[in-house]
């Protein structure tokens, strides 16, 4: 699906964009009807494709935003992706604000994701017109509910839950062999339909204690009141009560998130500033232009920087071909033995191959192949074996060279292989008979199904024809590196944070290295793990003593690998680097294997070429 969308996006023009968008919308509606992990991934790719069409061709933006806004009410990471897209469309296309802002206000009561709620409240506070500010204010306050924010203890509900404890039911059953047995099971009451009518916004603030949503709410209500030429005392009083309730909620420290607990003082400062703006005319006059204009300016600068940072796709026409399609290739084996006059015999077959494939750096190719050549037995063993490992995304091909170092004939020689990890032997090696001092090549194929460090081990079993004895040689292990399956990839900051909160497997690696430069250490980690750095790298000559960066990669099996590097240069530690590297993924294997890789490579300095 991803390959098809990439090809389609390269072929979209102004003439066919409407047909492409119609097809994408139809496929998106099909994906919305399904509820599976695969459908969520397909939904995410379709939304990305629709967004790319809307950015390239603004004339279709209005037709796609309406459908995308239906995804704001979902709980997966696609909702935040759509919210960011709506924010960008509203900023870059002022003509669509009159239709998008009311739609966003209508869907506010159905949003269940706190980050999406923050984005929606910010948009309503920034882009609501002065004529609609009063109605927007009343709708948001209606979702907030009454103050103060206190969770009432419903004793009746607790009593009813105690009375609905499961009961043990015992009955006699007949087993498959005809005998009787006693089976015990728990029976619970039928689930009662949810009757909680508490608005979603109030649930996030009061029940979940989300300080970030409360801060955004305080700022948005203050901006809506600043849009009116004369302050409405009734609405100002209502806003001040909400600000006091938010401050009281922050002081209670009931929020479960550790990150939000550290921002409690910031929440109190924000609420006190909003109160001063609403109650003090001088402060209102001073800060009103900043609150109403600076937000749009900062968003415009951010979108511009984001567009510049995205890698531009190179067109195929820009790539100069190494070999033209009609160039002649000479095959020496097909030439006649008699050379006619004027013909030059080309004895350099390697040059022919280089011209045909466009590859001229044969030394690097030999180095790459020799790095995957593993000796399986010693030179003192009667049978010497070495394996050339070739990794093709989903399978591994072993070419095992077996040399008979004895003057005797070895019959029924077979290489018995076993694997450790998520690998399976598809094609087992066949038995061979090798003459004295002879050699042969044995092939084996292994299927790989996930990104995980694996081991291949085995033995060589043969029969010596001179003594009729069956002998066995244990082979060295072949360690499969996880780096063979890792590919650098890129994603947005919102998607990275969403996956970071979603993935459950985490591996924390302490930094212990002899490298003293922050930039050099980051470059070493990026190069050694084949990952892409999503964070802007520090400028040369930067004297900062702390560095935090996000790295991202994707395996050939579609598995995401997230890495966060937090490193600090401490003066009290003789200038050595300290900190942690945290790895998160959906599966345990890639988190542990990538952690082992980082642990093994972080100590040494990168080789300078």
Any overview of this molecule?
This protein has 609 residues and is α+β, with helices and mostly antiparallel strands. The chain is 43% helix and 21% strand. It has 20 helices and 18 strands. The protein has helices at residues 2-11, 17-33, 37-56, 61-68, 78-92, 97-106, 114-127, 133-144, 155-163, 200-207, 211-226, 233-252, 258-261, 264-279, 281-309, 349-357, 362-370, 493-502, 518-529, 588-601, and strands at 167-174, 180-187, 373-375, 383-392, 395-404, 410-420, 423-427, 432-434, 439-448, 454-464, 469-474, 478-480, 486-488, 505-510, 532-533, 546-555, 560-569, 577-585. Strands 13, 14, 15, 16, 17 and 18 form a six-stranded antiparallel beta sheet that branches. Strands 3-4-5-9-7 form a five-stranded antiparallel beta sheet, with no helix packed on it. Strands 6, 8, 10, 11 and 12 form a five-stranded antiparallel beta sheet that branches. β1 (167-174) and β2 form a beta hairpin. The longest helix is centred in the middle third of the chain and has 29 residues, at 281-309. It is elongated, with a radius of gyration of 33 Å. The protein starts with a helix and ends in an 8-residue tail after the last helix. Mean pLDDT is 78; it is low at 152-164, 188-195, 313-318, 338-346 and 361-365.
